[in-house]
Amino acid sequence: MLSVLRRAVAVASLVAVSASVAQAQVKVEEIRLDLVGFQTQDGYREFGVGAPGAVAIGIYLNDKIALEPSIAFANIKIGDFDAENIIQFGLFAPYYLAGDRGKSGLFLAPGLNITKVGDADAAIDFGADVGYKKPISDKVSWRAAAGIRTGDSTADELRIGGTFGFSIFWR
């Protein structure tokens, strides 16, 4: 029952966000590449390096708020088990405290991830990231974030993790 409720909330959230974006004058101004990630849950630790690990685009609603849809693919093999394909879709809404359209400073990003591993049902997780961006040049910033997630894939326990990557701007 809780899983059905999560899916309903996720679908309603995506519909509401889509309607808001359709009405607003928005611009895609950024592409984000997460290259390094780690997470831990109940004693299990995972560390990954990808090129890219995840890709997101920054759709700015104003100077402080963006929507960041993301996608990630992976193929993992653990021990004697068969390799599994993983696909993950995310939607986060970062709030940038500096108000400079995401180029620098602290941010808080609530959102959700939908993850499909092999033949298993898709899992929906909710959470938030807290992070920092620092410009390297006018068009590139590095980004580090720590996050917390809970939901279907965590059996309602907390998963703590982090990412490091780069944001490229074309404005």
Topology (SSEs and partners):
Elements: H1 2-23, E1 27-41, E2 44-60, E3 66-76, E4 84-92, E5 95-96, E6 105-117, E7 123-135, E8 140-151, E9 159-169
What does this 3D model show about the protein?
This protein is mainly β and 171 residues long. The chain has 1 helix and 9 strands.
Keywords:
mainly beta; 60% strand; globular
Radius of gyration: 16 Å
Fraction of residues in H or I helices = 10-25%
Largest sheet: 8 strands, antiparallel, barrel
The proportion of residues in beta strands is: over 45%
Mean pLDDT metric: 82
Sketch the topology as an H/E string, one letter per element.
HEEEEEEEEE
Low-confidence stretches: none
Oligomer class: single chain
Morphology: globular
Number of E-type strands: 9
Order of strands across the biggest sheet?
A: 1-2-3-4-6-7-8-9
Structural class: mainly beta
Number of helices: 1
How would you sum up this structure in a few lines?
With 171 residues, the chain is mainly beta.
